[in-house]
């Protein structure tokens, strides 16, 4: 196992991290150069190396900071006291909006592109992103079932299905062609279709007209 080098935190640490973030999300690990990161951060290479002994450690620090700030958190929507048919559109909209955002696209591209080189980070990305979202939705669906609003037995599967429905046809399009490839009408159709399909499957018998 390679030795883990320490990260020094000082006056320009945030400045260096911000510059590294810009370059890594744009160019990936392999394409990012230390010279370009130093220029973007507005520091010398000596200052850069005083904080991060190597580029690999810098990438890990940037990526972990990104996971903390940019995970899709639906908890605010899931705590409101509204019928599930009114809550789901907000959840789906939040998921799909992040998927097609410039930041969401860049994080997704880098995560997939560097998963083989950084398998531990790929695991962290899954746990902080899709894994956390799945757990939030599973917990919410359990409460909906207890209230008689949904009929679900496999909560994790239902959570995964809602996430995938929210991304249907837009994640690959945005990641490969750019955010401009998904217009507002396309996004609206995906959001509406996701809610309708989910409720048509999981709303209790006799109440599925709400879908």
Keywords:
single chain; 211 residues; mainly alpha; 0% strand; disordered N terminus
Q: Would you write up a description of this structure?
A:
The protein is 71% helix and 0% strand. The protein has helices spanning 13-31, 34-41, 45-51, 55-70, 75-78, 84-99, 102-113, 119-146, 155-167, 171-177, 184-202. Helix 1 packs antiparallel against helix 2 (34-41). The radius of gyration is 20 Å and the shape is elongated.
Main sheet overview = none
Query: Helicity, in percent?
Result: over 70%
DSSP helical segment count: 11
What is the beta-strand fraction? under 5%
Number of strands: 0
Which spans have pLDDT < 50 for at least 5 consecutive residues? 1-6
Give me the secondary-structure category.
Answer: mainly alpha
CA radius of gyration = 20 Å
- The succession of helices and strands, N to C, reads HHHHHHHHHHH
List the helices and strands and how they pair.
Elements: H1 13-31, H2 34-41, H3 45-51, H4 55-70, H5 75-78, H6 84-99, H7 102-113, H8 119-146, H9 155-167, H10 171-177, H11 184-202
Helix pairs in contact: 1-2, 1-4, 1-7, 4-8, 6-9, 6-11, 8-9, 9-11
Short description:
The chain has eleven helices and no strands.
